[in-house]
Write a structure and sequence with these properties.
It is built from eight helices and 13 strands. The protein is α/β, with parallel strands linked by helices and 409 residues long. A hairpin with a 2-residue loop joins strand 7 and strand 8.
Length: 409
């Protein structure tokens, strides 16, 4: 049964934590504030119409301009099995050279981080958690665990374990997103709802995708439960954290790069967020979301943690035909403090439309009390926003924690 949190809440979990863990350090391409570091990944190799002319060297493709993002055909072709090889123009296969990441990714921020004046205002107003009346609905938070659906290579199914943790079945794989199975995480009160899927009920995990290194998305205690040969796909700069914990199949990707496992393509895409895990590693690793595409072209977008902004329309143009978008709707109040890093429910619906997604599944609410909005408000607001947008009710997958949905067709 849900329980009421009993310790203070810190809505920026990673902002003030003093505990120093293994700090991810650099080990890629130079960073740019508003542009990918590489041209878009081609979705199919070009078919030559004539033998190459030996006396004329090929002309390299021009880099993608910051304001131009040409759409890529869908579906993306399956890539070679096995993570670890980012896919870039001209080198779709073969071992990747050792990459030296920038010391900081702060130039990728789309909004400045809070300064001393903002921190002082936040401390003065003390809006750390909902008022008592906003906590009274904790027993009403939706929790309906059930068995995982049967899945094969032709099935796309999702099960919400809580917060940003999903069990995704796609292309015959079982993929975990930002797995947090712990009852409590650093700087945050205990879960107000249980985990929706028992760890022992999981099938063998074929891959894990991580959006960024904040404690409510990168949980060391949960990851220790995984075999160390489990493939993990992580943002640039975060690989060392995993290798220090003896994970042997770690793929670090920059924005707009991709790799594949078993015929499922994983593209790492931008987000409006940031990273921090200790007092000394602000923006030392990247942050973002993931687009998963199976061999039949079915596409799922996992946003991770993000505010609203221009990246959604760019992702939608580059990866058309997104069948399901997993989008955050919680941890948004006070708005002046959290607007740049967390979507509110109305912005999440707008993001789904910008993406061109056919369906949306809300997440990042009903699990940890991270901010000041009443605990049930994200659900009521996202339903109202979906209705106002005139979107089909059946395409809003507002699942209880522990529930599943299978993508037909």
């Amino acid at each position: 049964m849900p329980t009421t949190p009993t310790t203070p809440v810190n809505p920026f979990v990673a902002l003030t934590v003093p505990t120093a863990l293994a700090t991810p350090t650099a080990s890629g391409a130079p960073a740019f504030a508003d542009a990918p570091t590489a041209p878009p990944v081609p979705t199919a190799p070009p078919v030559p119409t004539a033998p190459p002319v030996p006396t004329a060297p090929p002309v390299p493709a021009a880099p993608l301009l910051p304001t131009v993002t040409p759409p890529a055909p869908a579906p993306a072709p399956p890539l070679p099995s096995g993570p670890g090889t980012p896919v870039g123009p001209g080198t779709p296969t073969g071992p990747a050279p050792r990459r030296i990441w920038p010391r900081s990714f702060a130039d990728r921020l789309t909004a400045p981080l809070p300064g001393l004046r903002g921190l002082a205002r936040f401390a003065r107003e003390g809006a750390l958690r909902p008022r008592p009346e906003g906590l009274r609905d904790i027993p009403l938070l939706p929790f309906a665990p059930g068995p995982l659906p049967r899945a094969d290579a032709g099935t796309v199914a999702v099960t919400w374990a809580g917060h940003a943790s999903w069990v995704v079945r796609i292309g015959g794989l079982t993929v975990l997103t930002d797995p947090v199975w712990s009852r409590r995480i650093l700087g945050t009160p205990a879960r107000v709802t249980p985990v929706g899927v028992a760890w022992d009920a999981l099938p063998p995990v074929d891959a894990v995708v991580i959006s960024h290194n904040h404690y409510d998305h990168l949980d060391a205690a949960t990851l220790r439960r995984l075999p160390r040969h489990t493939p993990v796909l992580v943002p640039a700069g975060l690989g060392r954290w995993f290798r220090a914990r003896r994970f042997t199949r770690v793929s670090e990707l920059d924005w707009w790069e991709a790799t594949a496992i078993g015929g499922v393509r994983f593209d790492f895409v931008p987000a409006h967020h940031w990273s921090k895990r200790t007092l000394f590693d602000t923006c030392r690793s990247l942050w973002g979301g993931w687009v998963l595409t199976d061999a039949d072209g079915r596409r799922l977008y996992f946003a991770g943690d993000t505010g609203y902004g221009h990246w959604f329309s760019r992702i939608g143009r580059r990866y058309p035909g997104i069948d399901l978008a997993l989008l955050p709707i919680g941890a948004y109040d006070p708005r002046w403090w959290l607007r740049d890093v967390h979507c509110d429910p109305e912005e999440a619906v707008r993001a789904a439309q910008d993406l061109g997604a056919r369906r949306m599944a809300p997440m990042h609410w009903a699990t940890f009390v991270l901010s000041a909005e009443p605990v049930l408000e994200p659900l009521t607001r996202v339903r109202a926003a979906w209705r106002r947008a005139g979107l089909p009710r059946e395409n809003l997958w507002d699942l209880p924690i522990g529930a599943s949905r299978v993508l037909a067709g």
